[in-house]
Amino acid sequence: MEPKNKSLLELHNLSVSFRMYDHGLEQTDLMVISDLNLTVYPGEIVAIAGSSGSGKSLLASAILGILPDNATVRGHLHYKGQELTAKRQKELRGAEFALVPQSVSYLDPLMKTGAQADGHHRPKLTDKRRKLFERFHLPKHTEQLYPFQLSGGMARRVLVSTALLTDAELIIADEPTPGMSLDQALEAMKMFRELAEEGRAVILITHDIDLAFEFADRVAVFYAGTTVETAPASDFKAGPQALRHPYSQALWRALPQNDFEPIPGFQPYAGHLPKGCLFAPRCPYKTAQCEKQLPPVREIRGGEVRCYYGS
């Protein structure tokens, strides 16, 4: 579905830092996300791709307002055109915001899975939930089991079900498919696609890039805590020549079905970020300008790129 003009969620120059204790009990701020931009429209799936440690899951916590007390969030967060304050985040969680968490430990160990999926105040959802469990190939007795009695794949499907049963307008799915078979993962993605077709928005955080390319409308590529490119998913399927940022191109070439070609170096750690473009130390096209100043975000060929020379 083509994005509509009116956005649902907008993040501009978002940064997240954590107050930490350094040597000698001195306090320091560790910047983990910096100058991150992302826009999400109703009726679309936006996939977030990138290596581990790039800030994907942390972004989900920042949107939901569930960061620890030592976290500081700066920048502009807007939902439906209004500022996303801590108070508003609390009101929206579980109502208009739904999370599929990465860890199955989010399931309550003292509650049966059927009751968890239905929710404390949603007894009328039982029939709908049973149909959803059946679609996920969960045995009928699953609703009577406690989380410790589930396999990893079953627990993952129950977690996805709890979010799909809500009326949330924004669903954030953080690595929803690990532990699932290919058929189960495809079914989950089809369900997310159906939600998008209904006009809801889905942020899909995933390492399963192939699935993202097939079901997402757009893909945002994260590197070292910021967005380096956002582009239509069709560009990622077309190949590196359709992409705009050198890291996106390198990510495409590193996929097993492509050249499986790694690039030298490694993603910088928070607290040791280079000055200028964060990808510059690994970029074959870097210049002196790249190493001095962080590039601005530019619109190119229907996408956005944070690069001086992306085309």
Helix/strand layout:
Elements: E1 9-21, E2 27-40, E3 45-49, H1 56-64, E4 71-79, E5 82-83, H2 86-92, E6 97-100, H3 113-118, H4 126-135, H5 152-164, E7 170-174, H6 182-197, E8 201-205, H7 209-215, E9 218-223, E10 226-232, H8 233-238, H9 246-253, H10 288-292, E11 297-300, E12 303-306
Parallel strand pairs: 3-8, 3-9, 6-7, 7-8
Antiparallel strand pairs: 1-2, 1-4, 4-5, 9-10, 10-12, 11-12
Folded structure, characterized:
- With 311 residues, the protein is α/β, with parallel strands linked by helices.
- 28% of the residues lie in helices and 25% in strands.
- It has ten helices and twelve strands.
- It has helices at residues 56-64, 86-92, 113-118, 126-135, 152-164, 182-197, 209-215, 233-238, 246-253, 288-292, and strands at 9-21, 27-40, 45-49, 71-79, 82-83, 97-100, 170-174, 201-205, 218-223, 226-232, 297-300, 303-306.
- The strands form two sheets. It has an eight-stranded mixed sheet with strand order 6-7-8-3-9-10-12-11, sandwiched between helices. Strands 2-1-4-5 form a four-stranded antiparallel sheet, with helices on one face.
- Strand 4 and strand 5 (82-83) form a beta hairpin.
- The chain is globular and about 65 Å long.
- The model has no long low-confidence stretch (mean pLDDT 90).
